[in-house]
Specification:
Oligomer: single chain
Number of strands: 8
Number of domains: 1
Radius of gyration: 19 Å
Structural class: alpha/beta
Helix content: 25-40%
CATH architecture: 3-Layer(aba) Sandwich
Largest sheet: 8 strands, mixed
Order of helices and strands: HHEHEHEEHEEHHEHHE
CATH superfamily: Vaccinia Virus protein VP39
Amino acid sequence: MANSNIAHANDCGLAFNGIEWLEKHHQSKAHEREQMIRDLGIEQGSFVVDAGCGPGLWTPLLVEAIGPTGRILGVDISAKALIAAQERAAEAYYRQQVQYKLASVEQLPLPYGEADLIFNANVSQYFPDPAATFAAIGLYLRQGGRLVVKDADLGTMHFYNVNLGLQTRVLQAHKRRYQERVACGYPFEDHWVGSKLAGYLHAAGYKDIQEKLYRIKRRFPLSEDCRLYLQETAEWFVSEGTPYLSHDDKANWLQCFFDSSSCVLDREDFAYEETEYVVSGVWTAAPCDR
């Protein structure tokens, strides 16, 4: 999901849901994301709603899964993102199968009970009450349809050649800062949501809940997209955690990722990993229960 008003920018104005950022992030994990969609086993001919579609980065993967007889509705709250999605699809072979509309994920622009599958990627971290949102989304699924939610968990991120104590302090400061931001009225964000998704789907009333973890690991040498993704993520951690980090910790952290002579990304022993979660559940409520 992208937001043209940058509602989820951090204190330093780094727009981590901006279109350019989303594209870098997506390309840096393209292999795993292709596998995520293949593993869902989406039926050919399905009607899929990409709820929080952003600039349409997942559309080609979803189209491949549904085949030539399926169709996709992409929904987002950002007009700017939807324009980018439409431009991306304009010359694509699948352009007749895809439609994009401006709407929120809780109020999708289609009748109840119509979607075979609703896909929700990297959006749940912004839901103040994920269980309530997932229950609202379920109304748009046919009986037996599936909700698929994909998101990250910063607690799984680890840089192998960065001091462990420094990493721990940086992430703890980052988490504390976000808790403070919510208490001060900033938009809600939970970057540790991935490991909680199965519980939220259960609370929302879904059945046959399945959770699959994807370990993403990169080593030297890095692609340019991956390098930019890691550098901007590293900068984000300390900009948000600034009030709770010492000057030395902040300087040492930034030196690890940006110093021309000692950047860890340029070391032959560099490696990092994180885990992303894909959780699905089946909607079984009958129409009379809605």
